[in-house]
Amino acid sequence: MPSSDESDSSVDTREAIMEATFRALSKHGYSDLRMRDIGEELDMSRTLIHYHYDGKHDLISAFLEYIVDKYEGNVEVTEETDPWSELDRRIDQCLFGTELDDEFGHWERMRVYHDLFSQAQHNELYQEILSEHYERLRESIIQVLERGIEEEVFHKVDAEEMSQLITDIIHVARERRISLGRESAPKQARSAIDDYILSSLVKPEFVISSIKQSSNDGN
After folding, report:
1. What CA–CA distance (Å, rounded) separates 19 from 131?
2. pTM more than 0.90
3. Contacts of 17 (CB under 8 A, 6+ apart)
4. pLDDT tens across 128-171, in order?
């Protein structure tokens, strides 16, 4: 059985390889990426890459799981967070991201993610990993919609179809921002979601109650 120090060392090595992969993908893109490019970004022996991973596809599969876990984490909510606020935060995080203490900004991370997303049609394992992530995102929105309906914050709607619509809008907006350079796309998507989806979803009495609560908190 490996010692605690050995386990920590293995985790540190894998983390270093994942971050080197991130830098290499950011510079070269998936199509032109070579294992040698990743090795050049690694501040340790390049042989460690081949020790842990059986080639490019194995490494990229591990990397996909890594960025999904690291950069698409759960929204911070408490038991006191109402469904409206939770849904609002989830949409904002998907469209605008959260600031992490690393060298990459949100859109640099998303550019790498969407580059790999485009490869899923050619690779069943990539497709499986990304499909699982997509479903996790959609399911998180379904759950908050169902809670809002149960607590009578939201009108009764088909939570699965509504979640699919919101998720698809988010994904297309990010793709427009990344692939077409339309920097206003996320804000436009957020505005459309507010005006055409959330405005009809939330019950007016809840909005009025929220406004009153905010006013009382300010006094």
Report:
1. 23
2. no
3. 38, 42, 48, 49, 52, 53, 59
4. 988 988 898 899 999 999 999 999 999 999 999 999 999 999 99
